[in-house]
Amino acid sequence: MSNLVEGRTGEWEVVIGLEVHAQVASNAKLFSGAPTAFGADPNANVSLVDAAMPGMLPVINQECVRQAIRTGLGLKAEINLVSVFDRKNYFYADLPQGYQISQYKQPIVGEGVLRLDMPDGTTREIGIERLHLEQDAGKSMHDQHPSKSYIDLNRTGVALMEIVSRPDMRSAAEAAAYVRKLRSILRYLGTCDGNMEEGSLRADVNVSVRRPGAEFGTRTETKNLNSLRFIQQAIDYEVARQIEIIEDGGEIDQETRLFDTSTGTTRAMRSKEDAHDYRYFPDPDLLPLVIPQAEVDELSAALPELPDQIRDRLTGEYGLSAYDAAVITEERETAAYYEAASAGRDRKLVANWMTVELFGALNKSGQTLADCKVTPAALGGLVGLIEDGTISGKIAKDVFAAMFESGKDAAAIVEEQGLKQVSDSGAIEVMIDEVLATNQDKVAEYRGGKDKLFGFFVGQVMKASKGQANPGMVNQLLRAKLDG
Amino acid sequence: MSDLLSLSAVAARAALESGEISAPELTAAYLGAVEETAPLNNYVAVTADRALEMAAASQARIKSGEAGLIEGIPVGVKDLFCTAGVVSTACSRILEGFTPTYESTVTANLWREGGVMLGKLNCDEFAMGSGNETSAFGPAINPWQGGDGVDLVPGGSSGGSAAAVAARAALLATGTDTGGSIRQPAAFCGIVGMKPTYGRCSRWGIVAFASSLDQAGPFSRTVADNALMMQAMAGHDPKDSTSADAPLPDLMAALDKGVKGMKIGVPAEYVMDGMDGEVVALWEQGQAWLRDAGAELVEISLPHTKYALPAYYIIAPAEASSNLARYDGVRYGLRVEADSLDEMYAGTRAAGFGEEVQRRILIGTYVLSAGYYDAYYLKAQKVRRLIKQDFDSAFEIVDAILTPATPTAAFPVGRKVDDPVTNYLNDVFTVPANLAGLPGMALPAGLNSDGLPLGLQILGRPFDEASLYSIGRVIEDAAAFSAVPQRRAGGAS
Lengths: 484, 493
Prior knowledge:
The complex is a heterodimer of chains A (484) and B (493). Chain A has 484 residues and is an alpha+beta fold. Chain A has 15 helices and 16 strands. In chain A, the strands form 4 sheets. In chain A, strands 1, 2, 6, 7, 10, 11, 12, 13 and 14 form a 9-stranded mixed β-sheet that branches. A 3-stranded antiparallel β-sheet of chain A has the order 5-4-15, with no helix packed on it. In chain A, strands 3-16 form a two-stranded antiparallel sheet. Chain B has 493 residues and is an alpha/beta fold. In chain B, 39% of the residues lie in helices and 13% in strands. The interface between A and B is large, with 30 and 44 residues.
């Protein structure tokens, strides 16, 4: 599949790199004991350290360090046994210290890789450049009072992992797939809840365009996108904007841009020239972070099975397509559901039923798997009824709809509604005879050479059986009667 | 009353235990002394009621046999320490009226050990200065007077602390030392000051100047008192990530160990051009005392000494420029209202910070800026490592190092200095210990021809404060420094 974009003057290749900010799942902030619970009253989760009172000092939360190591391991990345916290200095009202504690030159996690399974069956490997720990800032609210700004420091000092990709993505769809996959890994690991609406996962998107095979073009960075849709919209807008500028003979300014969620467009925030000079230097309040190899080994041994491992089992042992396997393993709960539902059943058939019918119904009703009334055993049971010929695939769809409504077992619904497939050749022959008798003209046409009418007769018989006749047998018996 | 004020802390502890004197009595005497010496402007806040309450509580603990290390001893606190419920301003307008809800670890340790808080002591604004002349409360005055009766600086930045102890307006006092801010004022005021090993005392609750250099330490009139206070204030603190989890030996036990068999280094590079002849003579005298007491004096080389001051005046302002960013008018302290956030910052910081603080913020911001970082900050850090290595090599040969504490005696208040660098030279002997994180003690060893105290400095291996107390005690005994400042409490009569 080509990701090239057609411009007025020829084809363009899109180059995308992402910086994802993932809030570390932890009870306390990165350098203070203050709680991190979402939705607290403004300034309820603020310690003396967070408010940068005179003489207050940061102390690293070791659980946040472990979460970063787990994430690094999940991204198959290098864990740096020595890393350094730096101060990124700038003034803002919601940044009490006047600097953000971050990791600049020596991050805790180095290079890793993330695999994407695209819908067309291709697989892409996206390089991870680094992961570092840093503090979140607070929140400024400018709409609460006509002349004053309000500051909420609840988020101040909350631990974030900034995960920086290589510029390896070539389309908005790949960027979205990257964020989905990253979120999936974080959730499996339990290192970030991945909740984009609450701001637990945000992305800065770096976009440039170039002629295929040429040097990288000048990039723009669009900040703080908090949904997959916005990420794709921002990229699409930027790509179109940049191509238009270049094709009109202009040049792209290296700048930071903001995304307007109401219009789906981006606008310049600040250019390279007025970029902040952050005056990074190692934070003298903190010693270098030294991690014993034994701790890394211990965390590595305790790592849960990750989506790629399950996916490989699903494609290798069960023969699922890479894409289906990726869809099923995106969430740990879904993968577990699948494993339970497909045990002892036709694995591919169950995968189909999950990705098409179950996910479709969930999507349509706005439910999640957790609210779903259809248990894994029940879905497995439904597929079992198809496998042993009790019901046809077509009837199974109606049964599934009833299961989704009521939560009842497939077998019970089939029983109650008398949907059992008719495989009795005598009964089917009676129905065939009736259909042929009432359509003698068509029988004549068919026998006169109009082969296409065979489908018509099948449809009539199925209709007469209310869909319950075994379609294979209908075919076989009908052909015998017409051609015999 | 003057008898009470002449007691050392160790002697006062004995008298309190024996019931010869009471804690409230001792505290009342010191509160009187504080009042008497008020013209010296050493205190910026006096906590008389709290002192009397604490003294009464101390007396009860002494009676019930639960006395702490410094039970009932009146202590003054440098205004850089945050003290719960007591205004703590770092002697800066930008923290005018700031009253913390929390107590610094060091002062909390002192109160836990029975110390009685007299009040907050004057210092240079944010501890930036060598003469206590940058304080928003005006200069603190040295109780020692030159022959011409001119007011002298007590040194800085812990000027009020040193002056108050010397003037008998505090029996003990806390200081902080970033480049010499305990040792230089101790030398100027003729008392004992110790900057412990970096990490020995918690920095939690102390207004930060330069985090990688700041250390709290004790001021006292005797070496033994200093060891006693050090024992009470030091210790590991999990709230300070740079606090060392190293055991603190019994420092009082080190006092009488002597120096027999010790090797004491004398660094060639500390002989500087234009150094006061009297300072050199005293230094040689100090060497002779130690030799006479059985130590071996060894000439050593600390080749990177001359780069210490330039490196210090890059690293300290760099860290300060970042540490002081929090004083922005948003959450506490001074705020100058304005129409925009940037104007509020500019107005607040222009009005709140004094000239020296602003100068250092500018220097620090400059040396950390893109394009200058490598040439200044990174280079200074390399120099810092070389200086540390100089000391590491020296300490393979010697057990401690003897140097002068300051190049001169105390200078007059308001001395006109066109070039701030001249002031920075005060720290030339003290700065290397901060860069290397080593313990250093300054103690009085004699008077110059103007009758002003001159001090010696002893530097030790990391976490070997004990040896400094052994050596200090030998010098103290040999020097038999008994001169007292003119403007001390109870001394005017």
